[in-house]
Amino acid sequence: MPSRRKGKHDGGLWKAAVVLFVLFVLLGLLLAERSIGPLLSGDVTGAYPTRVYSAPARLRAGESLTAEDLEARLLRLRYVRAERPARPGEFSRADLPAPSAGPVLPGRIGADRRPVSRFELHTRGFAAPTQREEPSELSIEVVGGRVQSVSLMGAGTAPRVPVLEAWLEPELLFELSGERRVRRERLEAVEVPRTMADAVVAVEDRRFFRHHGVDPRAMARAAFKNAREGRYAEGASTLTQQLARSLFLSPRRTLRRKLQEVFIALYLDARFPKTEVLRMYLDTVYFGQDGPVSLLGLKAAARHFFDKAPARLSLGEAALLAGLLRSPYNYDPFRNPQAAAARRRVVLAAMRREGFIDAVQEKSADAEPVSAAAPPRPAPRASDYFVAFVQRQLERRYGDAALLSRGLSVYTTLDTRLQALAVRAVRGAKHPAALVALDPRSGAVRALVGGRDFSREPYDRATLARRQPGSAFKPFVYAAALTGEDSSGPPRWTAASVLLDAPRRFRTPTGDWSPRNHEDRYLGRVPVRTALAQSLNLATLDLAEKVGVARLADTARRLGIRSPLRPELGTALGASEVTLLELSSAYCAFANGGFRVEPYAVESAMDPDGEMLEYHARAEEPVLTPEEAWLMTDLLREVVRTGTAKELRRWDLADSAAGKTGTTNDGKDAWFVGSLPRLSAGVWTGSDLPTGLGLVGARDALPVWAEFMAAASTGALHEAWPRPEGLSAVEVDPESGLRVKSGCPSRRTEFFLPGTEPRSECPLHSGGISGWFQRVFKGDGKGAGAHR
């Protein structure tokens, strides 16, 4: 009897639980009907366009900016020229003769006597997630490629009031559902070929016609597999859930959103027949990109990849399109036909397992060539490579569907003026080239170009290609030596330390290695400063061998190199492959006072409801002292003043530029990476398939960098690098690296970190009459030197 009562009690609990669950589901469906039903009366896919914006433009006295650049930006922002601007969105420009001598007006940065371009404009103001600007009436004067003054215009005859800075709104770079940004044609149910429906169901949701919008079996299977492997290895979303997620939900991955997704999927399944759910899915799903244009829906995809209507797709073509849905970027048949064919094979095998096709059909479809029709080339836009870079980052965080059909607002770091200049510089290169420009203080990517033409060469060489940097890696050797403390305290090495630049053989795990200098030119005993300036391989290896490969690798890692580094001496000469972006960002620590920066392109992102999805919080990690950073910058300036980059004087960049050339064996790759006080940039040029082209960094990469930097920094080419107070200046003899005395034939002022100044006088030369006779009758007096 007691056990019978217990069974009845248990049965009652189960019935109550079932009733509560049913009520819970019904309540959820009711809420779904009230909130989602009205949305289904229209075309929900076009309701929330996803937009990618540039950075706002700062207007500040001293900023590099030509009058033509400012006017071009105002016109891109659709400001209207007016004789007397009276409403937000209007501007005027007056080109005035050079002012006569007289006092400097308030708000100006100096008495410049060149012609003045005066702009008066009513800004519209803007509200970005991290910045809000109210509309204002401004007067801006531009002189010689530089903002001379920024003032608020007073009412009537009231005087103008100088302001520190003003801002123009961000530019729209990319709109996923605007004109020419999304390609989509409405798909009717009768237009969906049976092969396409079968292919999508087989590979994405094989129980689609047997579940009610949510598949408990798939959930249990995925949960078991994920628990067993200890990671997220498999998902369980049905096609209906994917449709619900892309149309109605925020990309933020939370438990609440997952519950909403389940209820919406149940609702869609209850309200619409399976064929209509499948049609809506195929009408809105993301199939990839045609340049900067998003392909939404089966019709657009069939036209783009095969120039066909969906009804004319072959079995192999339908399987290929179904395979794209897992990752449109990785399985794009134009970009990677081998991966597309392999993915198609997976889809065909799934179709055969589900009984949609037989083995003969599978084999025949698998034999079809991956012959996607060449798409029409869109007109190239300056920001295409940058937008593709941003898109790849956001796809990893939110997924294709959420990013490209849900309606995010993405605010980026791009400076459209610098981007246009970067495109122009890269297109002038003789070989494929890439360029990145960064704010050295924050790591913000201000310009990024991965090739000469995105429509012809969509592969991004700036962020995806890993190549040997050659001598452009050498600054990390010298940074490791000049900043690394030994057991006795201060670093053993200084800019005046003497290295041996002479042919020699090195023993390595793979055998003897006999590297050579460029053109077999060797200088014997040389100071560190000269060794880096002249890019001497053997002197650099002399230093690297003593510093140690482990310290070299650790220094490069601390500065920002993320790619694998070979544990061998050849790494000192750039034998390990890196990307242009990481190499350029690692140089920023030299230019910004010693802080490592992580390159980033997205300032913030918001969903259509105004909820912040992400925000870049600037984090500064000191990796060098200000004195160490300045000393490295000064050594890189020596490369420009007297070394392999001295050609920069042709662009009037020799006074302030600091950088390093790089050339790999047989001239396969050419590099130049460097900085001005406010801007860092790197350039690579070469061949996608490493080929001996006879390239030289100073001849092939440096001019591209110089063209960009000279134009980008108009009006600010001669800015100084402030020297920290902690450095000591000592006159030394370059041959010994020790303090100069009267008999030394040459001398230079060298800078030293605290505690590293030489204490001894040069022992190589005698003073007075005897020293003169020694130099006349015994040659140049070169002898042994010291490292300190």
Task: Give a concise summary.
The chain has 22 helices and 31 strands. By secondary structure, it is an alpha+beta fold.
- Tell me the fraction of residues in β-strands, as a range: 15-25%
Helical residue percent band: 25-40%
Radius of gyration: 32 Å
Largest sheet: 6 strands, mixed
Mean pLDDT: 84
Count, helices: 22
Tell how many strands the DSSP assignment holds: 31
What is the straight-line distance between the termini?
Answer: 98 Å
- SSE-based structural type: alpha+beta
Spatial order of the strands forming the largest sheet: 3-4-5-8-9-10
Which word captures the global form? globular
Uncertain parts: 44-48, 102-107, 768-788
